[in-house]
Amino acid sequence: MNALFIIIFMIIVGAIIGGITNVIAIRMLFHPFKPYYIFKFRIPFTPGLIPKRREEIAIKIGQVIEEHLLTETLINEKLKNEKSQQAIESMIQQQLQKLTKDQLSIKQITSQIDIDLEQVLQTNGNQYIESQLNNYYTNHQNRTIASLLPNQFVILLDNQVDKATDILCNRARNYLSSAKGTQDINDMLDTFFNEKGKLIGMLQMFMTKESIADRIQQELIRLTSHPKARTIVTSLITNEYQTFKDKPLKELLDASQFNEIAKNLSAYVTTYASKQTNNPLVKLMPQFVDYLESQFSSKLANLIIQQLSNHLSTIMTKVDLRGLIEEQINTFDLDYIEKIIIEIANKELKLIMSLGFILGGIIGFFQGLVAIFV
């Protein structure tokens, strides 16, 4: 009976010692958080293992994550994964649908990135357009009008000039044949008769004013169809048109005149553009919005993935993942680190403590046997 008591007692003592030893060992991983001193001598095992080696642990964790977990190759594979592309494309589609649903204007879109587009147009638009126009004038003022115009536009003008004689003669004939033309001829004859006095009075003895006006009207109308008259008109128009085309820009407009035109044009363009920024983009450019919704999202998703993939090495170098992890771990409170580790390894730590009790008990059992038989 005495022998059994000794064995049980030794088992209990051994279990308590083994269990408490493991509990203390686990606690010493974290505690104390700072070193303690007796006089000038630091007490051994202070601070605890993790507080003492926190910087080394942070460096190792950062190294492991960078070299084995979040590697450039792995991130590249994930980026080019079909699910990643679908996720990016879906996000773009959602934003485009919001653009249509909410009737967002260009001004509202740019305001989301802190850009006052209307203000930018008013402050910079005028200056930019005016500057570009004046630079154009400075660089091209010695060139002829014909050389400044697009070839297709010059051809169009040439064709219109060829038709000008017919148009002018037809307009003149219609005017002379109209009641207004008749009245104007009579008015001019009245003025002429009043100015010439007696000489015209003698003429009126042979012809009435109405017959003279009618005769003049008929001759003028006939003149509009006369080949020689048409040739003269054509020659005049052609010569004037050619002279206009051969003029240098500076002869048509001097620098001050062009500058005034540039100011007015830039003011008109920026004012018009500012008004358009308040219109919903879907109404302002419906075809463009349709293109965005049908094709743009997939193309943009591919472009984003491709650009990220091409510059991933640079991005990771700039981000410095290892340094970021080290910095974050070093900023954590030791209480928080302890909490994280215990939450992760709680089951295993309990098993270690239990194992301490079991091993201590076994050792106590054998010690009891030794105590009995020795």
TrEMBL record:
GO terms for cellular component: endomembrane system. Its main location: membrane. InterPro entries: DUF445, UCP032178. Belongs to the UPF0754 family. The chain crosses the membrane at residues 6-30, 351-373. It comes from Staphylococcus schweitzeri. This is Membrane associated protein. It comes from the Bacteria. It is found in: Endomembrane system. Keywords: Membrane, Transmembrane, Transmembrane helix.
